[in-house]
């Protein structure tokens, strides 16, 4: 059994430095010279691509849970979009999330919410956690895939190249909004799934964890905020279950299915009874 972080672990200065620079860079948006509506539009578009198609569909529902199957070229596109979200290398993201489901809210959960809101939101990323050496055991299925390895190794370089491209298109406003502001919003939106969705909201299912459904997190993350539903039915590609629980990524998957681009889509109805309860 892996012990929970009873004392503050060793800082990861590379992550702390990157996070600090990201937040400072986002403040550049306060200067009028860095504002334009077209730059805001670029940020919104990239947020939809990187958080919606990339993190929620690509990293989470596809790579982590294998809730659906798509052609390899499309899977790689979604993984690339997720890589450009700036939330770390893909194998780390997938591995830590699988650990989270295996040990939710207890020893072995990388962002154990019982350790406090700040820890589950961001502090766990900034410190070494006891389960880091376990990552390779949780990502064997993607360890030898050449494109996953490419994105895992060069995710910072890919972000830099995107920044260079945005600068060529629209100068500093495109860089400030399309990189710094967009990464800031996307980063905290995803982190709120780990923190707010284990603290605020309501529960449709009596799972043996603290997961909740939080509408405003779902709005920011294209459906990820229906987190209690997800913990109750983690293999399902559909997160929203009630009429008002809007899940844009699930709508996208339905469209892909109609176009013949998504197959073997797992839903609540396609899962065995025991998979509908618990974690």
Helical residues, percent: 40-55%
Tell me, briefly, the overall form: globular
Give the biggest sheet: none
Q: Please indicate the count of domains.
A: 1
State the helix count.
10
Order of helices and strands: HHHHHHHHHH
Instruction: Calculate the mean pLDDT score and round it.
Output: 92
Q: Your description of this structure?
A:
54% of the residues lie in helices and 0% in strands. The protein has one domain. The longest helix is centred in the middle third of the chain and has 49 residues. Helix 3 crosses helix 7. It contains ten helices and no strands. The chain is mainly alpha-helical.
Question: What's the gist of this structure?
Answer:
The chain is mostly helical. It has ten helices and no strands.
Write the layout of secondary structure elements.
Elements: H1 13-27, H2 37-64, H3 72-83, H4 90-102, H5 117-121, H6 135-138, H7 146-194, H8 215-221, H9 227-232, H10 248-258
Helix pairs in contact: 1-7, 2-3, 2-4, 2-7, 2-10, 3-7
Characteristics:
single chain; 279 residues; mainly alpha; 10 helices; 54% helix; globular
């Amino acid at each position: 059994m892996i012990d929970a972080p009873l004392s503050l672990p060793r800082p990861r200065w590379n992550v702390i430095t990157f996070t600090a620079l990201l937040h400072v860079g986002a403040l550049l948006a306060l200067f009028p010279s860095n504002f334009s509506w077209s730059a805001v539009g670029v940020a919104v578009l990239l947020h939809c691509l990187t958080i919606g198609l990339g993190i929620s569909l690509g990293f989470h529902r596809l790579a982590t849970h294998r809730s659906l199957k798509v052609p390899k070229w499309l899977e790689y596109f979604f993984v690339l979009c997720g890589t450009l979200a700036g939330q770390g290398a893909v194998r780390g993201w997938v591995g830590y999330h699988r650990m989270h489901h295996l040990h939710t809210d207890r020893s072995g959960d990388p962002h154990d919410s019982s350790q406090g809101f700040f820890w589950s939101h961001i502090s766990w990323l900034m410190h070494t956690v006891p389960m880091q050496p376990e990552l390779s055991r949780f990502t064997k299925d993607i360890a030898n895939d050449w494109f996953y390895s490419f994105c895992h190794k060069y995710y910072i370089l890919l972000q830099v190249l995107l920044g260079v491209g945005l600068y060529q298109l629209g100068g500093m406003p495109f860089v400030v909004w399309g990189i710094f502001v967009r990464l800031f919003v996307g980063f905290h939106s995803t982190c709120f799934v780990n923190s707010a969705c284990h603290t605020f909201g309501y529960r449709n299912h009596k799972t043996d964890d603290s997961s909740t459904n939080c509408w405003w997190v779902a709005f920011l993350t294209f459906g990820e905020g229906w987190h209690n539903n997800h913990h109750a039915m983690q293999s399902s590609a559909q997160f929203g279950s009630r009429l008002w629980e809007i899940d844009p990524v699930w709508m996208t998957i339905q469209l892909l299915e109609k176009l013949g681009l998504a197959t073997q889509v797992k839903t609540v109805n396609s899962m065995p009874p025991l998979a509908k309860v618990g974690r």
